[in-house]
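pinging the channel bc i need a second pair of eyes. not urgent but kinda urgent?? the chain im working w is below, pasted from the shared doc
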Amino acid sequence: MSDDPRLSPVELRAPRGAKSLEIEWADGTTHTYRHALLRGFCPCAHCQGHQGPIGWTATATDEDLAVLEIEEVGNYAIRLVFADGHSTGIYSFTHLRQLGVTGEHVEQEQR
């Protein structure tokens, strides 16, 4: 988690059947993350390897990919369980915050 408390999430909204997850941050910023974007930027070693920056993976091609479960991991991250069975990614709040800022632009470039 960031040392800056304003960069911590205060609310996650992920209604069943939705295609996106929304995070409201303590500084008042809100980001919406399409499930396919989250899956495409999964930070796990299986998707990313063991070194280097987190990048887009071609595994996220399903626009309707559902997030079935969200679990808190300590006070710094969440773990997502996707409908395709993938569940090993631990998404730190720092990663999610950065993804909210840059992810949509990167996803558009990958299409």
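so Helices lie at 35-40, 45-48, 93-110. and The first strand starts at residue 9 and ends at 13. — does that match what u expected or am i reading it wrong
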